[in-house]
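Troubleshooting: if your tokenizer reports a length mismatch, compare your output against this known-good record of 874 residues.
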Amino acid sequence: MNGACIDQAGMSLALRLTTRAELGDAELEELKHLLMGVYGFRQVTTEVTCKAPSSQAAAAGSRPAASVPAAPSGSKGEKQAAGKVLMGKPIRIQPVPMKILDLKMGNATVAGKVFAFECRETRRPGMWRLSFDMTDYTNSVTVQKNLTEKEAQGLESAIKPGMWLCVQGKMEPTWDGKDIQLNPTTSSWRSTLSGRIPPRSVELHLHTKMSNMDALTDTKEVVQQAIRWGHPAIAITDHGVAQSFPDAWHAAGDKIKILYGVEGYFVNNIDDRVVVHGPQDCSLDGEFVCFDIETTGLKVDREAITEIGAVVLKNGEITDRFQTFVNPNRRLTPEIIGLTGITDDMLKDAPQLKEALAEFLKFVDGRPLAAHNAEFDIGFIRAGCRKVGLDFQPTYVDSLILAQNLLPDLGKYKLDIVADRLELPNFNHHRASDDAATVGYMLIPFWKMLHERGIHTLQAVNREMEKLRPLGSKTNRFPKHIILIARNKVGLKNLYQMISASNLKYFKRVPTIPKSLLLEHREGIIVGSACEAGELFRAVADHKDWEELKRIASFYDYLEIQPLCNNAFMLRNGDVQSEEELREFNRTIVRLGEELGKPVCATGDVHFREPEDEVYRHILLASKKFPDANAPLPIYFKTTDEMLEEFAYLGKEKAYEVVVTNTQAIADQVETFPLLPEELFPPRLENSEEELNSLVWNKVHELYGEDPPKLIVDRLNVELGGILGKYDVVYMSAQKLVQRSLENGYLVGSRGSVGSSLVAYMSGITEVNSLRPHYRCPNCKHAEFIQDGSYGCGADMPDKICPVCGTEYIKDGFDIPFETFLGFGGGKVPDIDLNFSGEYQARAHRHAIEMFGETRCSGPVPSVHWRRRPLTAS
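Known-good structure output:
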């Protein structure tokens, strides 16, 4: 805009504009209407000058204009082709935001997503009413129009919720005058698939609503969206559960492959941190250089070394010492001065970093190093050597991990606490020279402990530590994330077993999966390194050395990188200084994959389906008291094009490899298999079929005599024909639980449709007799059935005396068909609900365990449920 002149008295506007493209008369007219509608001008005049960009700039940055306007941010910014015209002529006017719609605008053009649709015939014959609601996420509008039957039939099948439409029409008041609506004259449809070019990526990291208080993705909707986008597969990886698997399975059908997985809480209880790093070997009685450093802070990429202290340990004695200050070329903070006792005056004439490191390496002379929490000290020495051009490839020992493994009962493992436990001399903590000597004195008893375990050389230490590490209490305080995907049915079973164990045996704040458990059940499992909370990414962010990163990455089947927005919180928290650092983290993981020959896959860590759903996740995070709950985190289900754009900094070929090629390769490793088998897998009870048949007929003869009425025999034959050999274990397990409870003096109440099974009554599971209302004699077994429908149940009948023996009849029968329980032909799976006494439930559970075994029963047993799945009782 070059200038504007407003006449307040006449409410007119004169506008001078410069544009990069020629504006047509219709577009200028639309602009005038827009300004008049928003600001209330009576007249708007425009003076437009077109200055087109240079041909070079146009070739680099422009693209052809589409007849259908680009989608708002909610459509994820895909390239769109011209849409199908549903009504009227093609729309060539840019849409306006719905938030500015007003009656004064007259004609208006809007574009948005349809979220409700109705097309119905009115009371007037032949007149139909089209009505749908659409939104562009600035506001919403209702579109309504009267149609003929022929017009309605064409539009009824063309418009569906979820599609994007561009509509041009006239703004009108609603029938009651309280709102406005759009009466369309022209409508174009834009498919969310237009412009897409296969092949498509595969999302390997996606959370549904079953990720507790963390995700909002509807399983069915996201699977159907992946099908519409042409994705060959999609993974389901909720936090610690598999509850979305059935919904995904049903939604997928045969149109897309489902990768059944979980994002587990992984605890590396074996080799999360190893004692010995590097290849050098020597006797434990050989020479070691124990050292310590002091720094200006904790961040290796930002802080500087201020002091290096070292001692030589040989044959259990300290034989030599080294100490030097290092000039950090900056002022120390009061906190560092107070902690270390080192002042600026002590450092002003100290050697520069290169000189100090050169003297230190000369003192080391190629001998193995040792330090307490060695990753910190080695990290600073390595970074300093890299900065000044010195070679540093040490073999080193971490006394912290030795202490954790050899003194598992010790609560904390700070240097002074371990020294006090080993009864070492007092020392000036947080001064490098004194701390280094303490590390040396600490190794003496540790070497003695290892000698007693038969360990005498340095390279034998790690193998022994792998035996001790799982037994310690400090193997890993904070679980890391890990992605586990079932490769086949064996893997699915192992996945289920790990999920069960993590929730029942290893639960600690979250359902954790120890590395020892994962190694035990790794067959058929594809292991991914997960997000920024994964073991590998944390190691990269902590600037661990390359060999350590390779050791960690070698455990995984594929490595994972994610868009920068996923880790933007690290920038807000000050963990990184720029987005370039986040890019470098991903580049490091890519280089690891290249060196180790492991695929690197780009994933979205999806927590909601559409970008506009992000606001609802903010609510979830706020309820969990996250301080940055309202910070932007667009972890929605991204298109392949968006993912390629996110990783464009890797180069076009590498971005395609991590987004498309490698994700499809992982999906191709997964076999196609049904989530649930068609047949039942009940537990086994010895002779259950024969025992149930015997129980039933003995009870029949007891109640109705040796020659029971034909209708009883016929019904039992029908029921037993659908039960024996298929559901007999279900009946007998319930019968045994009920019988044991009755023997202990506790009544059991049956509920639900089990009362419609005569076999359940005859076997003692339920007290409800499902036969038609009848009288039966407890003495001579004579029976009279009421079959004219005059009574609904036996309890309603009048008292009566048996005409055969004169004994008072028992009134029985509730007239419930067997099909209520098992369906026609026994097609339903029996569901037996039993109410046990609260005092007896624990004993009932114990009885179930005695029958089936510890691993096939779970929870108290107020009811027994049998479902179409390998699990048995609950």
